[in-house]
Write a structure and sequence with these properties.
The structure holds 2 protein chains of 2 kinds.
Chain A: E1 7-10, E2 18-19, E3 30-33, E4 36-39, E5 47-52, E6 66-71, H1 85-88, H2 102-111, E7 116-119, H3 128-140, E8 144-149, H4 155-162, E9 167-171, H5 177-184, H6 188-200, E10 204-211, H7 219-232, E11 239-243, H8 258-270, E12 276-279, E13 288-289, E14 296-301, E15 304-308
Chain B: H1 35-55, E1 66-67, E2 71-74
């Protein structure tokens, strides 16, 4: 050794950034200071809101409830279409942050009558320690935890976080390695593995696929994705196709046409997926129907639940059990 | 004993896109919302945001220095090559 502080290698995500003293990782929020890796955003969220849980979107998880939602700056992916790029692609020194340590997260959620906490907006895997410690305290306090994630994380830390996680909305941004590499700066294999790990660990998951015109709207790609979900996760996993609006570095593209979303929905259903939703177009395919008898079980308008007929998590008409976290 | 200070937060939803933390400006991407409705929507959200800022104090120190987990030290020789 030459007396300089040691380099470190972050083992949180597959990028495994090797950092000399003073350098920060690709996520912007993990930095080597004197040979130790430091989490810059622990207890320092830049966003804290009370959202309807339908906004995550989670449609099979305490429907109609509010969820205390936090995020810090930073993300380990760099999706060119990111809708939250103003916080995800920014250093934490450049956002207006709050003092909200884990115990205050729990306090705020309870004071505002939120039965659950979401680690969301940017990427909870990047602010891993903050999300994990807040989740542990929240669970002790009787709250549920939801992560909204791209799933780009190494398996060991993901399994650690799963111990305290009840639900997840995980992105499947596309179904090709080229797409993940060129548009998101990640890789598909890791993300698929994360889906499997969440299910193995007993976390209730819903999947979101944002359809970006010309980039991931190929029906063959969508069909391949749906086949993979059915085969590896099961046909009962809710899938949300979400409409893209021009954002960040993709402002030159047009919003996703409705017929593209309709086609995707039809493909998913034809592959056997039982709960397929279309997001970002209020009034279209927002209701939960019983796949056995067809009646509407949960009706929604936008983020509002306008009716919920479920009885003990089952269809009142035919008794079919609907997957989800209902209480 | 002093009562615990209540932490009051905004209702979110300033940006109607799924899972967005909210913004106070910009046009609605949702065709179903009229300009007026969207103006009320964002105006109410902005007011809620002001309320948020009056209760949850901005951090005087914008970053934390908490130790992270899941990392290893990297040994290197004098040439900087990893061993």
């Amino acid at each position: 050794m030459n007396g300089k502080p040691a380099k470190v290698r972050c083992k949180l995500c597959p990028k495994e950034c090797e950092l000399a003293h003073g350098e920060r990782g690709d996520c912007r929020i993990r930095v080597n200071i004197d040979g130790k890796l430091i989490a810059l955003t622990y207890g320092k969220p830049c966003s804290a809101h009370i959202d309807p849980i339908e906004k995550k979107p989670m449609f099979h998880f305490l429907p109609g409830s509010t969820i205390f939602s936090i995020a810090t700056a930073g993300c380990n992916l760099h999706c060119k279409f990111c809708q939250n790029w103003e916080i995800s692609q920014t250093n934490p020194e450049d956002t207006q942050n709050f003092d909200l340590p884990p115990k205050s997260v729990v306090q705020a959620a309870k004071q505002n009558n939120c039965p659950s906490v979401a680690y969301t907006y940017s990427e909870p895997m990047a602010y891993f320690e903050y999300a994990r410690d807040s989740s542990a305290l929240a669970r002790d306090a009787g709250l549920k935890n939801v992560i909204v994630t791209a799933g780009y994380i190494n398996e060991a830390p993901l399994r650690e976080l799963c111990k305290f996680t009840d639900g997840a909305n995980i992105d499947l941004k596309g179904f090709s390695e080229d797409f993940y590499r060129e548009v998101c700066d990640g890789d598909l294999a890791t993300v698929l593995r994360s889906h499997e790990v969440l299910v193995e660990e007993g976390v209730f998951i819903e999947i979101t696929n944002l359809i970006v015109p010309t980039l991931n709207d190929d029906p063959k790609m969508i069909r391949g994705m749906c086949k993979w979900i059915v085969k590896n996760l099961g046909p009962e996993v809710p899938l949300h196709f979400s409409r893209f609006f021009p954002m960040y570095r993709m402002k030159h593209l047009f919003p996703t046409p409705q017929n593209t979303l309709d086609t995707a929905r039809d493909i998913a259903r034809s592959e056997g997926l039982k709960y397929v939703y279309v997001g970002n177009i209020p009034g279209v395919d927002e209701d939960t129907r019983c796949p056995k008898c067809g009646i509407v079980l949960i009706s929604r308008v936008g983020y509002n639940v306008t009716g919920n007929k479920l009885e003990g998590g089952a269809c009142p008409n035919c008794g079919n059990r609907i997957p989800g976290v209902w209480k | 004993m002093k009562p615990e200070k209540k932490i009051l937060l905004s209702s979110g939803g300033m940006n109607p896109l799924p899972d967005s933390p909210g913004k106070t400006s910009g046009l609605s991407p949702l065709p179903c919302l009229s300009r007026r409705a969207f103006g009320i929507f964002t105006g109410a959200a902005a007011a809620a945001s002001l309320l948020l800022k009056s209760w949850v104090k901005p951090s005087a120190v914008n970053i934390s220095l908490e130790p992270a987990d899941h990392w290893v030290g990297v040994e290197s020789d004098n040439e900087g090559n990893e061993k």
